[in-house]
Amino acid sequence: MTYVITEPCIDLKDRSCVDVCPVDCIHDDGDEDRKLYIDPDECIDCGACEPVCPVTAIFAEDDVPDEWKAYTQIDAQWFKDKEGARAATNELRPPE
């Protein structure tokens, strides 16, 4: 299991989760990305990121709300196909 960053992070990207992650598995490419992404291959499932998120955007994979389940795939996709993950994010929540 891994943790997933969902829709409330989009266009906010509060980095509190990055600061507490003991394995540095939370990434983005600055202005290229509208949200942060958790690498499922690096995440050790410690849960340190979840309680510090000010917008409750982080969930254990099994606890992601149904309306945000697509972000589980998007987080994993970003580490293999960043442009595809960005397009999928924009499709789910178009830029304003």
Fold and architecture overview:
This protein is an alpha+beta fold and 96 residues long. It has a single domain (3-92), classed as Alpha-Beta Plaits (2-Layer Sandwich), CATH 3.30.70. It contains three helices and four strands, in the order E-H-E-E-E-H-H. The longest helix is centred in the C-terminal third of the chain and has 11 residues, at 82-92. The radius of gyration is 12 Å and the shape is globular.
Q: Which descriptors apply to this entry?
A:
Alpha-Beta Plaits, two-stranded antiparallel ribbon, 96 residues, 3 helices, alpha+beta, two-stranded antiparallel sheet, 4 strands
The number of domains is 1
Whole-number mean pLDDT = 97
Q: Supply Rg.
A: 12 Å
Number of strands: 4
CATH architecture: 2-Layer Sandwich
Strand order of the largest sheet: 1-4
Structure summarized in a few sentences:
The protein has 96 residues and is of the alpha+beta class. The chain has helices at residues 16-20, 70-78, 82-92; strands spanning 3-5, 26-27, 37-38, 58-60.
